[in-house]
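Run log, item B.
One chain of 99 residues. Sequence copied directly from the ordering sheet:
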Amino acid sequence: MEDFDSTLVRRGRQAASFSDMVEFAKDVHERPLAKLFEELPHIARLSDTKFHLATNILRNRFRAQSGLDQLELQKIGSEIADRVSNDWVADRIRAIFEL
């Protein structure tokens, strides 16, 4: 399964040092939102620390959008969470959009 993970998810999973975490955070910040949405189920499976780091960055990016765009992104996030078979992962995805 790991072979199919994106570079971002692999980097997040393998991040062990401070500089690794900085690079992971930079990737989350620079990744196009559409691509991040595709990766949300995998990001939600990362350790608590890595998931919370990604969540903080995603929330900042989310807040920077217009009100209408925020509603659309929230809807997309909810749809992704609804398609995930693991309730814990789905709840983590939904939590990203709870401001």
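Observations after the first pass:
- The chain has one domain: 2-96.
- Residues 2-96 form one domain.
Flagged for discussion on Thursday.
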